[in-house]
Amino acid sequence: MNFMKNYLAINKQTVYLGLKAIHCNKYLSGGNKMANIIAGEKLVKAVQEQTFIKGGDISCAEGVKYDFRVSSKILKAIYQRPIDVNNLNETEKRDLFIDPGEMVFILTEERLDLPNNMVAELSPKRKLSHAGILAIGGFCVDPLYQGRLLIGLFNLSSTRFPIIPGKKVIAATFYVLEDDECCKFLKPEIALDDFPDELIEVMQKYRPLAMASILENLQKMQGQIDFIRRELDSQNAWYKKFEDVLDNHNNQIGNLLAGLSAEVTARERGEDSLSKAISGYTNQLASVDKTLTWLKGASWVIGTLLTLFIIPIVIALILKFFN
């Protein structure tokens, strides 16, 4: 979130500087006429004679522009103060980078000493932009300016950018004003040859955006999200399994209830096997009871016949035999 705020703030500053450059162009054009551009041999001669460009190199004069180089003086928050790269050992020089999300200020190797009738318009080097480095500063240099250029470099990329003294950082186009465009411009009290005290104080409190830390935290968050997703998937699988078990139990209970209901209905109708068995036994007992009743009646009839007919005859025969 802080990175986005800084990014938007820097973009806002860039838009402001762009508008200022457009205003500078209008100022240079003098309304309907364009101020004269110092280019080609004139620009090379200015470098050789060190008129308004001091400490320059003719190899940096290209067409209508002069490419300013990074000096050995830099202001980086980790050092808490300006340093001279020439005073660092080789290991420290190799480790001199602009980290992702970090702002570093540099001074140019060249100095300007602009006359009253000259202005300079600055433009960042394209290769710098391609590397994700945003140049910040005043893009229109007023007449009578003296000293080095102070440039802020902000790393918008995700990789470290090396700070190399002598590397081209920003280009300048110089315009000579017409007589009617010149006026009494204010001359700076002192030439800018070092970092302003107020900027040093700001950088001492400045804490760069630690992109590596942000990426690490994002990776940790991603890992936590993946863990939560796996836990949810595991819980969902467990819930599904539990749901299947409940469904199985529900089916079994449903089948049991259906069987009990059918049993109750069958008993109410007397169609269940137990009722049928009892009914069969009842019918058999009734049949046996009828048989016993018949046998009882038959034995009574037989007894009666024996008493009335057969016994008297047997007695008579016995008496006759003995007589």
Q: Rg from C-alpha positions? A: 57 Å
Write down the CATH topology of the largest domain. Answer: Deoxyuridine 5'-Triphosphate Nucleotidohydrolase, Chain A
| Highest-level CATH class of the largest domain | Mainly Beta
Report the biggest beta sheet as strand number plus sense, adding barrel if it closes: 11 strands, antiparallel
> How many separate domains make up the residues?
3
Percentage of residues in strands = 15-25%
Count of distinct strands: 13
Walk me through what this model shows.
The longest helix has 59 residues, at 211-269. The strands form two sheets. Strands 1, 2, 3, 4, 5, 7, 8, 9, 10, 11 and 13 form an eleven-stranded antiparallel beta sheet that branches. A two-stranded antiparallel sheet has the order 6-12. With 323 residues, the chain is α+β, with helices and mostly antiparallel strands. A hairpin with a 2-residue loop joins strand 3 and strand 4. It has three domains: 2-209, Deoxyuridine 5'-Triphosphate Nucleotidohydrolase, Chain A (Distorted Sandwich); 210-271; 273-322. The model is unreliable at 1-23 and 26-31 (pLDDT under 50). It has helices at residues 2-29, 40-49, 90-94, 126-130, 197-205, 211-269, 273-322; strands at residues 36-38, 53-54, 61-62, 65-75, 82-84, 97-98, 103-113, 118-124, 133-136, 140-141, 146-155, 161-162, 168-176. The chain has seven helices and 13 strands.
